Amino acid sequence: MSISEEERGSEFESAEFPRPAALRSARVLRRLSRSLSGRRVSISAVVVAVALSALTGCLYFGVHRGDQRTGDDAAAAVRQAVTDGTTALLTYKSDTVDADLQAANTFLTGEFGVYYQSFTRDVVAPAAKEQHITTTATVVGAATMTLEDDRAVALVMVNQATSTAINPQPNSTSTSIRVEVERQDGRWLISKFDPV
Question: What is the pLDDT of residue 13?
Answer without folding.
Answer: 47
